Amino acid sequence: MGINAIGIAGSTAGAVTLNERTSLLQSLAIGNDIAPHVICHPGGTLHLVVGTLRKAISADLVARLNVVTASASTLIGQFTIPHATAINTPVSFTTFSHSTFSDLDVLSWDVTSSDNSSDANGVASFSVYWS
Fold this sequence. Notes:
By secondary structure, the chain is mainly β. It is built from no helices and ten strands.
């Protein structure tokens, strides 16, 4: 288990077209590079990361998003969903260590802290939005 890509879509907000990738966390086991890699197409500037819980958790979930190339891995940001967050409640993040993607950059996820829970249908998900 790990994080599986479940959505690739474009949506429009006013005159700006937002690109989106959603990753499903099936297992909150702590580890690096624990999920299938997903691509960014087209490139652009990161605006928002939104996390939500499908199942209740007993410890804060801390997930790290990276952009990976053939020669380097760059931290985009570390995002915490507090364990007291109600299920189906979006938690938004707008502060990033790195906020630009080139066309066909690759995203990867790490879990750095959690309660190690798992569910085949997912415990949490994170969506990444850029234009």
